[in-house]
Design a protein that fits this description.
This protein is 49% helix and 15% strand. It has 1 helix and 2 strands; from the N terminus they run αββ. The longest helix is centred in the first third of the chain and has 38 residues.
Length: 78
Amino acid sequence: MASTSTSTKILLLIGQLVLALSYGTFGIILTFLQFIRLGPTKFFRRVERPTPPAQATDPVYGKHEMIKLKVILLFLIL
């Protein structure tokens, strides 16, 4: 079994960094455009969800539990 040369490893690492930076930049730009489109009030609004949606409580995926910690509601699948 032939080992991978150092130059190939460096090129793969550079490729991974370029992809990560590209996708990260793309995500930041889309988030900023969404912020501009909606405005700060709608962008940061809090949505009250006292119960999870029906699809999220499907027993096929496991046992579902909700834990309330002061103002935070955590949804767990065990």
